[in-house]
């Protein structure tokens, strides 16, 4: 049985390189899309890398200059020589379609990457030898996520588009009578200092033991989810979900928490708790109370929660209890989960 050839499109690769050797403006259209490793053939990787080097130095790229660049890098023979460079110029159907060719080559590269990833996963799964399967699942998800991020890119936007987004945001803030753009915490002093919790920010709440860090974080989660209807994810590495829910009920119903814990409630308090339960049930608040959760596990769950519910605020109580894969590089792991 013959071995299957990995996804590729040699004609598209040749057309791209030929277009770059003919039209000096073509590289501007695809330099952001393609990297040398996206090409299947090694000789094409070398040629494209040489063209990019010339582009970075603001020098023109043609058969002569690229050949000279490859010669200086001792890559000319690997690239097929000057004859192959000349042949590439004659292989171009049209320079106008260079961006479409680039997409074909990039898609083939991603397919090859997925195949390679699948093969590695299959090999590790077969030869795991009793290793932690959660570690493998987390690694796979991270690599697939990283691969998907490589396929995404941002480009320049005309200011009128950005202005339209800004006006919509300002109008929304005006309607809410809010004085800041971030997520409000419900605590005026904090909101005035931070202008709310800003997207992508990592905020550390630090204090001595038993002074109310959990209560404060839970109150913030409650306010954001209940009053603002913004999805919140809450990782509790210390308290159980039952304990957290009791605290939330006590706060929402304005009932003594000790009475909820003991069940020593009168009819009016029971009615308040019933109303509080209905309010909390409709709030987009998600709790995970896995004890000693690992950072990679939280990353996996957080990404899934964001994709499924559009969560905008994640709270970890508390981060020191998270289990790290690499204790010598804990700062990077904490940074990684914040992303």
Break the fold down into its secondary structure elements and pairings:
Layout: H1 10-22, H2 26-30, H3 42-56, H4 63-72, H5 81-89, H6 98-126, H7 133-150, H8 159-176, H9 188-194, H10 213-227, E1 232-236, H11 241-253, H12 257-262, H13 267-281, E2 285-288, H14 295-309, E3 313-317, H15 330-338
Parallel strand pairs: 1-2, 1-3
Question: Care to give the gist of this entry?
Answer:
One of its GO terms (biological process) is DNA replication, synthesis of primer. It is built from 15 helices and 3 strands.
Notes on the protein architecture:
The protein is mainly alpha-helical. The chain contains 15 helices and 3 strands. A 3-stranded parallel sheet has the order 2-1-3, with helices on both faces. The longest helix is centred in the N-terminal third of the chain and has 29 residues, at 98-126. It starts with 9 loop residues before the first helix and ends with a helix.
| N- to C-terminal distance | 45 Å
The average pLDDT is 84
CATH topology of the domain at 202-338: Rossmann fold
Give the number of DSSP strands. 3
The dominant shape is elongated
Family: Belongs to the helicase family. DnaB subfamily.
Enzyme class: isomerase
Protein name: DNA 5'-3' helicase
Catalytic activity: ATP + H2O = ADP + phosphate + H(+)
